[in-house]
Batch of 2 targets.
Target 1
Amino acid sequence: HAKELGRNRFCFFTADLQAQAVERLQLEAALKRAVERDQLLLHYQPRVDARSGRMCGVEALLRWDHPEAGLMAPGQFIPVAERSSLILELGAWVIDRACQQAREWIAQGWSDAVVAVNVAARQFTSGHLDTVVQQALARHGVPARALELELTESMLMQEPDAAVDMLRRLKAIGVRLSLDDFGTGYSSLGYLQRFPIDVLKIDRSFVQTIGCGPDGAAIADAVIALAHRLKLRVVAEGVEIEAQRRYLLAQGCDELQGFLFSRPLPPQALALPAPAHALVDG
Ligand code: C2E
Ligand code: MG
Ligand code: MG
Ligand code: MG
């Protein structure tokens, strides 16, 4: 019976508004249970140093191991969670689990591991993000430098003054802050200078056009220049082909992330980088 409902959710009722509301509520209820039933998990995608190719961190990406639908990507359920305070619970779970994993990697010898976590708008504007972060770091005994929070321009621009305040509190804890999908949101360059952030992540859409036409790389070039002028690190996401890697390296992009290097993987499947001293020793 549950299986049948599951199928209905995806096919028959989608045209009907009332049924859509029911579908949303069902998905929301199932998602709530997913937290309790341990169906959520994090996959991790490497971020590599553009020059050395060495893995210098990972991005945690949420997955839902749904009993009927299988492994679901965040696009299929994060928007549902974002409609209610469920996103706060989910977001806190992600931060906690990412810290637990960071602790494990550090213990395994990856001493400078950095785990980046995506933050939802509601989570950021709730006013409690700093507390959630501090508690998770303390619970797992993880140094703040091992955690990076990925924010978006739009969530900062909702209430820029309150945002600056929260960003300062997070910086005071010592975590790294990045702007995800940079260039796709509503942003103001003036505010960019006021926000105490460390990293710009060039959106995948601007990486994918590199090599396409005379202006295909224009935005990527501009973001790299802007980041370095503001003394920020710059990461390119969605790097899929060698030509993109070579171009971004030549332009001075600091870190690269994308299917060219690895898809997001369960933590056990990740090959940890050799300790930094091993590289120096040859
Ligand atoms: P994002 O933060 O921009 O994450 C990058 C997305 O691009 C991931 O999709 C990743 O699998 C995908 N990707 C990475 N490399 C490539 C590539 O070379 N080519 C292509 N085509 N795609 C690539 P995913 O895992 O489906 O996540 C989608 C979005 O869901 C994320 O975009 C992020 O905004 C959100 N998300 C993921 N995990 C969380 C979470 O824990 N909390 C919140 N609030 N949002 C999350
Ligand atoms: Mg991200
Ligand atoms: Mg992104
Ligand atoms: Mg993106």
Note: The first strand starts at residue 40 and ends at 49.
Target 2
Amino acid sequence: PYVQAFEVIEKPNISYDDIGGLEQQIQELREAIELPLKNPHIFKILGIEPPKGVLLYGPPGCGKTLLAKAIAHETNATFIRLVASELAQKFIGEGARIVREVFELARKKAPSIILIDEIDAIAARRIDVGTSGEREIHRTLTQLLAEMDGFNPLDNVKIIATTNRLDILDPAILRPGRFDKIIEIPLPNTRGRYEILKIHTRKMPLAEDVDLVKIAQITEGATGADLKAICVEAALKALRENRFIVSMEDFNYAIKKVIKNRYRPYAQIL
Ligand code: ATP
């Protein structure tokens, strides 16, 4: 079957309200991407150049993709998503061509945001580029850098890349005019966890005893994706018992289920 190497989402259905915590990061991303796309003249007046690319790094499941989608939604930009690990594994020999096509499409459909997920798959520092597979991955990266160098910072194409491994990246991608803005997306703190729980229980009928503050306090170390899974598991538990209201007991069950078998500081207290 034909597998598409990248995905175009005309208008992602995610807004800033769907993101818990990360206020500072949203602010920085808006300045780096939304402002120059919407008001390029401001940058001209001030005589400064916005970043062409932004790199989001941090543990998996904490909202990197979500943030990129929200920015695309808010700017009405065409959103093109490319998963770098797939370029390296599924589309062997085609990486450079795919990168070229993605940038062509982005320019044609501008304003556009290109999201490159797991960029470390093509941009890890390499000691030797000996094997043909390595050389091919290197060609893909070279094409990406050439595309980025080839356009103007005020063209309305922006690139967001994500990674869990900032430490292994080739410094070439961090040079000025490339990914020159780096934003950390960390694990949520207690308040962040509370905000995320609020979002994922927005449409849920909660019993009066459900205490989201308490849940946030006892889930230290949980990612946004974990917290979402906890909410879903709690609701499924209620459903299984033919209840249409979700109780604190359901949440306690779900917390244990989702975080079971994982080393987390709170594992002992549950
Ligand atoms: P990965 O590195 O695995 O791609 P990521 O950081 O991009 O992870 P997302 O794909 O954005 O994580 O998050 C996975 C899911 O977890 C989201 O679709 C969302 O439902 C939930 N989630 C994660 N972080 C948050 C958050 N800050 N607020 C609300 N929901 C979140």
Note: The radius of gyration is 21 Å.
